[in-house]
Amino acid sequence: MAAVKSPTNVQELAALVQGGEGRALEFKRSTAELREGLQTLSAFLNGSGGVVLFGVRPDGAVEGQEVSDQTLREVAQAAGRFEPAAQVLIHRLEVGRGREVLVLAVEDGAGLRPFAYDGRPYERVGSTTRRMPQDKYDRLLLDRGHAKRRWENMPAEGLELKDLDRREILRTRDLAIQQNRISPDTSRDIGEILDRLGLRIDGVLTQAAHVLYGKRFLPHYPQCLLKMGRFRGTEITGDIVDNRQEHMNAFVTVREGMAFLERTMPLGARFPVGQIFREDRFPVPLDALREILLNAVMHRDYSHYSGYVAIVIFDDRIEIRSFGRLPVGITVGQLSRKHDSKPVNPLVAGAFHRTGAVEVWGRGTNRVIEACRKHGTPPPTFEDRSGFLVVTFQAQLIQDKGLSIQAPEGRVESKEKSRETSREKILALVAAHPEITTAAMAASVGLSRAGLEKAVRNLKKEGRLRRVGPDKGGHWEMIK
Fold first, then answer.
1. Contact, 178 vs 356, CB < 8 A?
2. Would you tell me which of 50, 55, 178, 358 could form a disulfide with 24, CB atoms 3.0–4.6 Å apart?
3. What does each C-alpha distance from 379 to 113, 191, 366, 374, 384 come to in angstroms?
4. Is residue 4 part of a domain?
5. What is the pLDDT of residues 418-429, one digit of tens each?
6. pLDDT band for position 413 (50/70/90)?
7. 154 and 190 fall within a common domain
8. Segments forming the whole domain that contains residue 265
9. DSSP structural state of residue 161
């Protein structure tokens, strides 16, 4: 319903105008201002509804005007210029001396927003009507077509099953069965799996299928891009230590992004109070980083060719950036509090949910904050920056040379004196991060690739470790 009740008699009219103009009420002296009044109705439709009164001065004085059949025809004709078509309630109130107040009211246009009048959208800010910013109009337009005509469920022109990563699709199926999020009877036919995930419609593959499982992205999908950079200092102008830009599907983006973070962050250590075993620690908890990276991949705007996800590491912080704004109704401030889940790409998010990677209850950012609290690091900050959502983790990413392990009694020992065996480090990493890649493990343990492979072979011979699946996409298992 309209945020302001439309008056049905003179007494209700007098009470209404006494409060003055506001977010859902505007006065016009006469229908000579019809165009401006209908622009305001467009703003009300894009908000919570509202009422425009013709025949009331800006100060609230009720003057009325002469309303003829011609006046009503002009109003009705002008009201037909809303896009999409809007229902405008029109009625007349006699105020004496042969004069009337013409009342035009609209209800909340939810589900059909954005509305435009004469091809231009408007919004209400306080008691003022103004042109709606283009980016907001675009987002509302995307939301309006979300059910049937959003980017992710549009046909992927020329895409065939052979162009998709079969192994990745089967991995989704297997993980979904393990998570009880898909029937164990689901066929291993990749076409049928995609049908079950809503990624193939009437035999036609969707753009979501390409985003999730594609193998080739240029020249038509340049936005499927992950940028990874490590800069010295605290500014983007610092020396580049590591720089990679690769086009890849969503699942690989998450794995490669986490491998880059694990490889790039220093791995410190401490002895928790009352414990005899050392605890290896990254500056930021990996679970928190993984959750934010997952969100960046799932909820970004894939519709623009210049979009991407970026992981940027400085000496004092880690930034994860994703192209696209938050859904309408969600603000950056709400991400640190309880909020509803409004996936921008429900098909993409649904595939990740089936694998058990995420929930669907809007608790992800809250879990990130809790993980940081338990880890003893500051919670991340959320920022809308030039069309990107930027999540920043403050952390010291420069390790003191030779002093990185805190002993139980409080004494500091050098790495050389207190280093555990490489195999013990490997087992500790595997226990915490079973999906860690060989490259990331080698970097974290401080071994060459050959040295790591030798240590892993010994652990396998001892019956303490095994690998399930390939290096990318598989996981480690410790054998008790």
1. yes
2. 50
3. 35, 42, 10, 10, 17
4. no
5. 334 677 778 877
6. very low
7. yes
8. 149-419
9. G
